[in-house]
Amino acid sequence: MKFLSVSESDFLYEMAVNGACVVEHAVDPGLCERMKEDAHWYYRQMRPVQIAAGLEEISQWSAHHTCGRHDGIHAFLDSAVIEPYISAYFGNKPFILNTIGTAINPPIAETGRYEHGHKWHRDIRTYNGNDARQLLIALVLLDPFTIDNGATEVLFGTHHHADFPPANFIERFKRTMTAPRGSVLFMDGDVWHRAGQNHSNAFRIGLSCVFTRPYRKQQMDYPRYLPESYASSLSPGMRQLFGFNARMPASIDEWYQLSENRFYKSDQG
């Protein structure tokens, strides 16, 4: 197992107080380079679909549900290198992948912009508070994140409050999360954040992995979405991650099953 630069106890403390934590050098640079190539491949595949759906501007420079191939992203997920942090965040109980996608932060000189990412936002629409730990974001830095190239900005502590903070709070508590390539920025789903403006002359790419407890509905039904040839090759750990142990039956025949054959397994919470 790769040595990780932040202890689980320090990770949990930073997440509780700040709503964010950076673990540096968690992913090998070579794998980051492979995943950058994957990001461009998925974007090329999905761009015509985005345009046909009338989402040309709002979806520009992003690709969603970037999985289903034996590529660099698969290798990263299968390595489970950040699993100790995810498991600790969810109280050492099962979790699944809610969604996964890539974000390409373009130089400001480029035509178009990463529309959604440049606005302050939370990744959860319904605020529960009380340290609910509904959702954990793991943003894998496929490039170095710097002030110049628009590193992610986080409003520390805002996961404790339902409302968006006033302007004077933003100026005082905004943190620019700079870190080397291969680092992972973890964020509580309730913390406000955004991508910074990229003033460099190169694209800055991140892989966003979102994890939840199994009983929360996935943004994509991955057990149905993934190609059968890919799904049948998955390890038990990857099947858990993609939600194969937390499926919903779609017929009475699927509902009435012996416990070992049930779509939603009894250990999923």
Brief characterization of the structure:
The chain is an alpha+beta fold and 269 residues long. It has helices at residues 8-17, 29-52, 72-79, 83-89, 167-173, 222-225, 228-231, 236-241, 252-255; strands at residues 20-23, 62-64, 96-105, 135-141, 153-155, 174-176, 184-188, 193-194, 204-212.
Please describe the structure with a list of short key phrases separated by commas or semicolons.
oxidoreductase; iron ion binding; globular; Jelly Rolls; 9 helices; alpha+beta; Phytyl_CoA_dOase-like; Ectoine hydroxylase-related dioxygenase, phytanoyl-CoA dioxygenase (PhyH) family; single chain; 6-stranded antiparallel beta sheet; 2-oxoglutarate-dependent dioxygenase activity
Strand-helix topology:
Layout: H1 8-17, E1 20-23, H2 29-52, E2 62-64, H3 72-79, H4 83-89, E3 96-105, E4 135-141, E5 153-155, H5 167-173, E6 174-176, E7 184-188, E8 193-194, E9 204-212, H6 222-225, H7 228-231, H8 236-241, H9 252-255
Helix pairs in contact: 1-4, 2-3
